[in-house]
Amino acid sequence: MTEHPAASKMRSNLRRHVSGSKTQQLRSSTENGGSGSTLVDSLEHHADEHTALLHRAFQNSDGEPFYKDDRPWVRWPSRFGYVAWQTLTSNPVNVLLVFVPLGIISGAIGWSPTVVFVLNFLAIIPLASLLSFATEELSVKLGQTLGGLMNATFGNAVELIVSIVALKNGEIRIVQASMLGSILSNILLVLGCCFLAGGIKHKEQRFNSTVASTMSSLMAVSTASLIIPATLYAAMGSSNTKDKKDDNILILSHGTAIILLVLYGLYLFFQLKTHADLFDEESGDNDSEEEPAEGHILSPWAAGVALVIVTVAVAVCAEFLVDSIDAIVETAHVSRTFIGLILLPIVGNAAEHVTAVVVATKNKMDLAIGVAIGSSMQIALLVTPFLVVLGWIMNQPMSLHFEIFETVVFFLSVLVTNYLISDGKSNYLEGAMLIGMYIIVALAFYVYPDDAGGDAKSLWTLIP
Length: 464
Description:
This protein is mainly alpha-helical. It has helices at residues 5-21, 23-31, 36-57, 72-88, 99-109, 113-154, 157-168, 172-201, 209-236, 242-274, 276-280, 283-286, 300-323, 325-332, 336-348, 350-361, 365-394, 404-421, 428-446; strands at residues 205-206, 425-426. It has a two-stranded antiparallel sheet with strand order 1-2. α1 packs antiparallel against α3 and α6 (113-154) packs antiparallel against α13 (300-323). The radius of gyration is 27 Å and the shape is globular. Residues 1-12, 14-23, 26-31, 33-37, 49-57, 282-295 and 454-464 have low confidence and may be disordered.
């Protein structure tokens, strides 16, 4: 039977007591010809008695845990408490769950917009963690194919929910900045932290360059899908009215979005079906080092219910968060672009950041690459095109036309990332490069005004 954590802690404390306060007594007993082992055995027996008493506090008369009791009125409440505790302690950021009710109350009552923004900002971080946890629990039960689809669907659910709320309110700049910010956050900040943390512990780390190359190629395609609308808008110049240019860009964006969604579907089929061996190849290197598999906590039904509850909570907090952005822009003098591009991605990617860095320190770089670049690819090929199509349905002018400055930053970030992962090796210096570039980008967008690219000039005028 598995030892209860509290019992394990008590046993550990007693043994520390043995090694500390009883060391001198053990030595004198040995020096005087007595039996030192007799003293240790006595204290071990004492510890076992305390452990048994603590076990019995959480067990029924048959020695079974209460959550396995035959009586339903005992088993179900105990089971619920056990699962809830295991879920809440699955990630340290869950301590921030206290901000969820505070954020909802602040928004409902109508507190200061700054307070509402901060409380709901902090509330979404643990909700993102719980969403990730429930998705992992459910995807394991559904097998590889459906599990991959679940991870693709819910992996960036927070960004998707926040963006849908913003799109409904007509905050197109927030939506575009949030999507671009999520991609930059993953390929620069998250990947950089992985390389840095892993490189400090290991001199050089290796990963599957074939998989990384495939992801990089798809990211390059997504970059092209943003560069083409931006250059087309600039190329049309003043020969067309602004409304005519916007209509043409929308036609291009709608067609491009559909193509990107088809490409992402083909990628899933490629990854999960026809070329699954390429993506499973890295697991063979780590089999000997792999730790014993942990028991899964949530049943499929429980994980599904948790997903629904957490998704609803995220939607409510996101509603209050987005509604308070206008007041934050006015009072804090921060641009919408900076809020969407830097602040909101920190919320949505918090759980992924922690996961990627932890696995990188364990020298599981294939998994870290999958989290960082895979998540960026989902945003670029799935979430952003989906929002363009959704805006088309909702009659909102959501397009793939980003400002020239944003497009250039995106292109350079993908270019640098592709260079660094092309050799299938990483070290702490490469991580420092990526983090440094992310800080430069953040500073640039901090001083970048929302109306800077209102009338895009010809791209050719930017070239000497």
